[in-house]
Amino acid sequence: MNAKQNWISIAMCCGAIGRGNQTSFGKQKAGNEITVKPKQIRKFDKTMSIDQAYNYRAVSSTIATAGVLKPDQLAVLSKAGIELVINLMPDDSEYAVDGERQIIEEQDIEYWYLPVDFSAPKLEEYKQFKGKMRQSEGKKLLIHCAANYRVSAFYSRYAIESGRWTTEEADRFMLSIWQPGDYPGWTEWLDKVQRHFQR
């Protein structure tokens, strides 16, 4: 799968985190010739691609959002042309990937860590996120957390404030992934961010 294909938007739906597909390669024959079934190759490539990450959304040709990525998906970000990763998931999350920063930085990709406590999001964290987004202009960017809940809320508000989306477009994007009203603290956070826009 080439970089262009990696940035095709997937259908706007929510799903469960899937178990990794295991690929079994053919037995070695005489003369060191190894056969691999074509279907096995396709399954292997699909599992490795970043657009198979949980709740993945490509929002533009240069910006994608997602939930947790598996180590194998993190390891191929450079092949997708990613230049910068912003992670809103705290390292102590049960979904955090051990060594994520190292996996990313070994590919010469910038890594910005901006942890957001899902149970207590803060306006100040949004302000920091907005600053990071402004610094990332012109780069191919992946923003992720555990389920694309934090990220879709933060990015959609930033898209409103920066004039990229209308409020209706931003809400449609966010609500295609989750319902903030179902989780304590998020409706209040959205209200605080809205008031911040109006200053």
Quick gist of this model?
The chain is an alpha/beta fold.
How are the secondary structure elements laid out?
Elements: H1 3-6, H2 38-48, E1 57-58, E2 63-66, H3 71-74, E3 84-87, H4 100-105, E4 110-113, H5 123-135, E5 141-144, H6 149-161, H7 167-175, H8 186-197
Parallel strand pairs: 2-5, 3-4, 3-5
Antiparallel strand pairs: 1-2
Description of the structure:
The chain has helices at residues 3-6, 38-48, 71-74, 100-105, 123-135, 149-161, 167-175, 186-197, and strands spanning 57-58, 63-66, 84-87, 110-113, 141-144. By secondary structure, the chain is α/β, with parallel strands linked by helices. The chain has a single domain, classed as Alpha-Beta Complex (Protein-Tyrosine Phosphatase, Chain A), CATH 3.90.190.10. The protein has a 5-stranded mixed β-sheet with strand order 1-2-5-3-4. Helix 6 runs antiparallel to helix 7. Residues 1-45 have low confidence and may be disordered.
